[in-house]
């Protein structure tokens, strides 16, 4: 299992930036997700609507191993 520890504020601001491009009603369900890639001490967040792509990066020193996962952008934002 992969562990990544960040403060709420460290993740909230970049997530709000990429969530702006995500729409709730997509014909392709994957487009309502955000890609989270952790590698080399940073966490990269990426979202797209196939016309616009937004990516941000956050420092993540407590990274145990590299991983990539997609999660629902709106649900993650609601949790934070």
Can you lay out the helices and strands and say which pair or pack?
Layout: H1 8-19, E1 33-39, E2 42-48, E3 53-59, E4 67-72, H2 73-79
Antiparallel strand pairs: 1-2, 1-4, 2-3
- Which band does the percent of strand residues land in? 25-35%
What's the multimeric state?
single chain
CA-based shape: globular
Helix content: 10-25%
Largest sheet: 4 strands, antiparallel
Outline of the structure:
By secondary structure, this protein is α+β, with helices and mostly antiparallel strands.
Please, could you describe this protein's structure?
- The chain has 80 residues and is an alpha+beta fold.
- It contains two helices and four strands.
- It has helices at 8-19, 73-79; strands spanning 33-39, 42-48, 53-59, 67-72.
- It has a four-stranded antiparallel β-sheet with strand order 3-2-1-4.
- Strand 2 and strand 3 (53-59) form a beta hairpin.
- Helix 1 (8-19) runs antiparallel to helix 2 (73-79).
- It is globular.
- The mean pLDDT is 86.
Distinctive features:
2 helices, about 25% helix, four-stranded antiparallel sheet, about 80 residues, alpha+beta
């Amino acid at each position: 299992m992969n562990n990544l520890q960040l403060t709420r504020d460290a993740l909230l601001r970049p997530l709000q930036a990429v969530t702006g491009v995500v729409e709730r009603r997509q014909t392709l369900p994957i487009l309502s997700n955000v890609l989270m890639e952790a590698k080399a001490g940073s966490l990269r967040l990426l979202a797209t609507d196939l016309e616009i792509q937004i990516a941000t990066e956050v420092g993540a020193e407590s990274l145990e191993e590299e991983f990539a996962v997609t999660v629902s952008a709106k649900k993650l934002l609601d949790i934070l």
